[in-house]
């Protein structure tokens, strides 16, 4: 055996269903290596067939072993972007932890950390703090000259908002979060960031995207309305290269690893229904879902809990879209706010297609996570005429659904175009994401049939 393997062995004979080649840093002893393996998802076993290290491939047929509990090091990271995915997942985990604290403080103290922007949409301490934190982590880990970011928030609005203590609250929140970086296997700053360093990190996100080169798209808090209402929201980070989304990470702090646990989430539900959540060990309140383009896999890991003893690496498991393609059994998701998507148009579509389930109205890109995980089958968004969808609201979700086996297009059936700057320019009518092509084709047809008679 070329390297020391410490995974426990199982005796089951595998029926090989999956195989792949993975970068497994530090998985075998302290050596970084690539491994080629065969995986059986049914009995959760794994067989390593070769290892390569320092350009030397060694054939190595291991015994069949139980899938390691910590799947992260074997997770679906395509080699080309493995470093970027790794850093992006850790940064989003940190951002989720930051958001949980700010959401708790907004809800419990009804404090004044919520502001209105010029377009009357909301922004909070969490939006600016996550933007600064993620920007700082990406620059620190990849070199600031290599990091270009398109993101939702800007320093002008923060400086213009003459709210006493707002900027100080952002600086403090960022520093508290960055001090925790070692728990996530990342470096913390040697000394706390100054106000101007925090502003610099926010304004480093000044790229406007486009068709050339590589940039990150960040929505620090997607579904800010859900966030301030104590409900669902997401942290969304994607990497776009030559106009194509190459990786996506979605942090969903209030979307538990298991759908059944949603009932325990909401504080109000808990009071009203007196449901007792499962024990803290077994209950993962939130999740992070991620995928790299072309891997054919999407992965989900639990949020790192507040418990300081829990440190990286975190475990991950694959997620897949639902196999339902009968509209009568399918669930569709849409934005909560009528102002963001026409509920009456989608109700008509649902009726004409024979969708019988009540729509699942959820804030934020958690809707994309729900489709990728198989909790729902369809996501539709039809904004009012003239509204231009932004790339950071869809990039991470789109690649994750596609790699989990689903289809994401505009209402004309064309792929979303992330190469046109900060907006999804050229979008035909709306966005349709589905668990599979059968449902997708039916919706595109139904939209065509009813569009001219709609008021959109
Ligand atoms: N008028 C209008 N029409 C369509 N979309 C809009 C509109 N205004 C805002 N936005 C963008 O929608 C993002 C929130 O989308 P959601 O799907 O979460 O909507 S909802 O809150 O559930 O209703 C929201 O993202 P965040 O600002 O990150 O919350 C906005 O980018
Ligand atoms: Mg958003
Ligand atoms: Mg946002
Ligand atoms: Mg916003």
Automatic annotation (TrEMBL):
Its EC number is 3.1.3.7. Its cofactor is Mg(2+). This is 3'(2'),5'-bisphosphate nucleotidase. It catalyses: adenosine 3',5'-bisphosphate + H2O = AMP + phosphate; 3'-phosphoadenylyl sulfate + H2O = adenosine 5'-phosphosulfate + phosphate. Keywords: Hydrolase, Magnesium, Metal-binding. It comes from the Eukaryota. One of its GO terms (biological process) is phosphatidylinositol phosphate biosynthetic process. It comes from Jatropha curcas. Belongs to the inositol monophosphatase superfamily. PANTHER family: 3'(2'),5'-BISPHOSPHATE NUCLEOTIDASE, PHOSPHATASE. The keyword Magnesium applies. It is an enzyme of class 3 (hydrolase). Pfam families: Inositol_P. GO terms for molecular function: 3'(2'),5'-bisphosphate nucleotidase activity; metal ion binding. InterPro entries: DPNP, Inositol_monoP_metal-BS, Inositol_monoP_superfamily, Inositol_monophosphatase-like, Inositol_monophosphatase_CS. Mg(2+) binds at residues 152, 219, 222, 393.
